[in-house]
């Protein structure tokens, strides 16, 4: 078996640098109740909301923040659709581990060129506070990675979210940032 080594003095580099975890989105049966629990049990602060009242149909999402961690808790508002099906299949759980990148178009193209399966190509979301670019690729199971470029965005989180303050101020628990995520592969499916 032949092995290939890098020339002496060669610098390693990332194909597309990842700046960190942008957010983690959970699909849950009751996002309002889950948001309340995450606030009380883990010290997250409710900072934003998206749903019918903000012009988004069929879903409700609560943005929770603690230090550099952003969680989005999303529920379907009816029995049909991708969100409801995900919850039926898996219960409450992670759907999207979003990665913060400098250039979502470039990151997406490089990932797909190297074999990643597309969820959706880069698309621009905009409101009066700027634009973000978001693309997404499949990982394993029903989990995806969104590739988020927000250098042109100066709003709360992303278009469609409105600022919401908590009814009470939770006590932070000391969580600072996401340092890693682990995926559990089904028994007998790891290659």
Q: Characteristics of this structure?
A:
single chain, 191 residues, alpha+beta, 2,3-Dihydroxybiphenyl 1,2-Dioxygenase, domain 1, nine-stranded mixed sheet, 3 helices, 36% strand
Architecture overview:
The chain is of the alpha+beta class. It has a single domain (18-163), classed as 2,3-Dihydroxybiphenyl 1,2-Dioxygenase, domain 1, CATH 3.10.180. It has a nine-stranded mixed beta sheet with strand order 6-7-8-5-1-4-3-2-9. It has helices at residues 31-42, 82-90, 104-113, and strands spanning 18-27, 45-50, 59-66, 69-76, 93-101, 118-127, 130-138, 144-149, 162-163. The mean pLDDT is 90. A hairpin with a 2-residue loop joins strand 3 and strand 4. The longest helix is centred in the first third of the chain and has 12 residues, at 31-42.
Which secondary structure elements does this structure contain, and how are they paired or packed?
Layout: E1 18-27, H1 31-42, E2 45-50, E3 59-66, E4 69-76, H2 82-90, E5 93-101, H3 104-113, E6 118-127, E7 130-138, E8 144-149, E9 162-163
Parallel strand pairs: 1-4, 5-8
Antiparallel strand pairs: 1-5, 2-3, 2-9, 3-4, 6-7, 7-8
Domains (count): 1
How are the strands of the biggest sheet laid out side by side? Answer: 6-7-8-5-1-4-3-2-9
CATH domain topology: 2,3-Dihydroxybiphenyl 1,2-Dioxygenase, domain 1
Uncertain stretches of 5 or more adjacent residues? none
- Structural class, by secondary structure, is alpha+beta
What general outline do the C-alpha atoms trace? globular
N-to-C order of helices and strands: EHEEEHEHEEEE
How many beta-strand elements? 9
CATH first level: Alpha Beta
Percentage of residues in strands = 35-45%
Query: Helix amount, in percent?
Result: 10-25%
Mean pLDDT: 90
The CATH level-2 architecture is identified as: Roll
**Number of helical runs?**
3
């Amino acid at each position: 078996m032949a092995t290939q080594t890098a020339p002496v003095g060669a610098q390693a580099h990332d194909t597309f640098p990842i700046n960190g975890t942008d957010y983690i989105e959970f699909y849950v049966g009751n996002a309002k109740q889950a948001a309340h629990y995450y606030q009380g049990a883990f010290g997250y602060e409710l900072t934003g909301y998206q749903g019918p009242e903000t012009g988004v149909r069929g879903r409700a999402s609560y943005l929770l923040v603690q230090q550099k961690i952003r969680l989005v808790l999303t529920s379907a508002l009816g029995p049909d659709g991708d969100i409801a099906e995900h919850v039926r299949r898996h219960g409450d759980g992670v759907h999207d581990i979003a990665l913060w990148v400098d250039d979502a178009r470039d990151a997406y193209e490089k990932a797909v060129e190297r074999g990643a399966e597309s969820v959706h190509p880069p698309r621009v979301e905009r409101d009066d506070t700027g634009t973000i670019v978001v693309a997404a690729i499949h990982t394993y199971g029903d989990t995806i990675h969104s590739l988020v470029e927000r250098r042109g965005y100066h709003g709360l989180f992303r278009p469609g979210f409105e600022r919401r303050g908590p009814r009470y101020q939770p006590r932070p628990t000391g969580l600072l940032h996401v340092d890693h995520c682990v995926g559990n592969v089904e028994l007998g499916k790891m290659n």
